[in-house]
Specification:
globular; 293 residues
Amino acid sequence: MVLTLSVQLAWAEKVKMIDGRIQGVNPSRQEVTLSFQDPVSGKTEELVLRVDAHTGFGEGVRFEDLKAGEPVAVDYREETGEPLLALQIRRVPLTGVPFDKIPFRDSADVSFRHGLKSKEEGNLLAAESHFRKALEMDPDNPDPHFELGNLLVERDELEGARREFEQALMIDAAHVPSHYNLGLVYWAQGLLAEAREEFRKALEYDPSNVKAQLQIGYTYQAGGFWEDARQAFEKAGEMNYSDPEPRRALETLQEGARTRSESDEARARKLQSGSHLIGELFAERYRDESQRS
């Protein structure tokens, strides 16, 4: 496995946000349907979002209290082949007004959301400015530190990114995305044991985090601890039987084991052949010396 931070910042790259109104709530399926206006076409569209243990709610909001027609702001994660997952659901301050048009423009939350929007649009300098402004207004919030860390990773400033993730964890030791991404930074810096510890901490707070369990296996594999890697990958597979990555990781590990075994056998044959030739050489020299004497 090749470590690519810009790809593996799992919570950083795929988070999107949207404002809209609750169209419907389905408690049995743990789903919320959101209606929103497409900014390009101007048409009203619908979005179905999954709600699970990872979903957070703004103050005074509970899943069972959501009602049709209620205006909300939603941060959600988008992954290929997976249902859209609502990460945060909040009521918007003014009914039907987009977040960047509301009068409370100095709030930390609005600055943070401006940062996310700028990042999504590719304007990283503006995003950084918004995140730092959010920190000035709310220094006890780990999320701006986390997003700043992700921006610094994209600029290959790993030490700076490391400090931001560590700051986020000083504020909230249970901030799973910061544990995960700090682990990736440690790995990129060659600190495999430290990286593994961060992935383990991510699992402590989120026992169903298959990606963190896989990363533990990958760090063992990178360090040459094949049996530990195998056990880690098998455990990841047990955590989610439908996820194909643990199976692929095991297959790659087994293929590597076969290659190493073949290489060891070839090396042994070469050494044996070399020993045989040396033995013959010494025997020949011994016969020559005997004949001369």
